[in-house]
Amino acid sequence: MISVKTVLLGCGLLLATPGFGQQVAVIKFPELQQRLARATDTTYVINFWATWCGPCVKELPNFEQVRSANANKKVKVLLVSLDYASQLDKKVKPFVKQRGLKSEVVLLNEPDPNSWLEKVDPKWSGSLPFTLILNNKTKKRATFEQELSKAELTAALQKFL
Amino acid sequence: MKKALPLLTLCFALLLSSFMFRPLADGYQVGDKAADFKLKNIDGKMVSLADNKEAKGYIVVFTCNTCPYAKAYENRIIQLNQKYAPQGYPVVAINPNDPAVAPGDSFEAMKTKKYAFPYLIDETQQVAKAYGATRTPHLYVLKRQGDDFVVSYIGAIDDNSEDAKMVKTKYVENAMTEIMAGKPASTNSTKAIGCTIKWKRA
């Protein structure tokens, strides 16, 4: 016989599961650059965002949906938060947990955007949100310095698959 | 004709490159002449670059009430005016955001600001488009040459938006020192993170 307590504990664990595994790693630019340069046939969808950026927060569910819709394909969604590192525990982690984000989230801790923006893509002027889709095997790249609807994002990714 | 062909090819290549090396988004590059504008200030008066005959130039900054980065830089923009207005380069702030998209950037909301410099509303967003501004804050240093104003620096204020005390490189101030000395800025174009300009929905 299973006690009520066990059932409750089980339910609790089940509900808590999405929260597990979602860490927010704080990285420096060379780490990000390495990841972007990896020789792989996986298509990366990299979205630069911040919790304070309205259009970013609005479009995040589109990235989550595109991730789950392409879970069986070689597609990786990486959400790069440009929140300040000082806001990691106060803002970013609670946000990721509350939204139940399943895509990998990292926080890029670099104070001087002028030193690295150009290296992400010369076309990026610095406004958020910014999305980069790239496949290093096919050497294909697409950039979007704007908010993307689910249809726009899906169509953009489709060209890589 | 044989001699003319390489020359023609060169001309054609130059013509082509002048288009190719322009960024996709149109707007001013360093060295371009900035067209004058006539925009409404929060005191209700219209402001143009030509109004201030004393100005040796301007620090034009596209900014707004709502963007966290614009807020983080608000005091530093005020300080730029305090430092450079007496030297002939006053700040002119322009809010390009569509209040229909960002209600906190309405003309009424702008009026809550008490700046010692103009805070203009770019209702048609034509000035932001002409400059090629993409974000707030986005800063342009203009230097007077006769009746013209030449774009002499475009970009960031400094290298640390979070904390003015942690700044290592004051990009615009370094550029101003050189520009005021009659030299071209050695770093005349920088990039910064900011909020997208809230363009009118088509």
From TrEMBL, chain A:
SUPFAM superfamilies: Thioredoxin-like. PROSITE patterns: THIOREDOXIN_1 (PS00194), THIOREDOXIN_2 (PS51352). PANTHER family: PROTEIN DIPZ, THIOL:DISULFIDE INTERCHANGE PROTEIN DSBE. It comes from Hymenobacter arizonensis. This is AhpC/TSA family protein. GO terms for molecular function: antioxidant activity; oxidoreductase activity. InterPro entries: AhpC/TSA (IPR000866), Thioredoxin-like_sf (IPR036249), Thioredoxin_CS (IPR017937), Thioredoxin_domain (IPR013766), Thioredoxin_ResA/DsbE_sf (IPR050553). The keyword Acyltransferase does not apply. Residues 18-161 form the Thioredoxin domain. Pfam families: AhpC-TSA.
From TrEMBL, chain B:
One of its GO terms (molecular function) is antioxidant activity. InterPro entries: AhpC/TSA, PRX-like1, Thioredoxin-like_sf, Thioredoxin_domain. Keywords: Signal. Residues 28-177 form the Thioredoxin domain. It comes from the Bacteria. Residues 1-25 form the signal peptide. Transmembrane segments: none annotated. Gene3D superfamilies: Glutaredoxin. This is AhpC/TSA family protein.
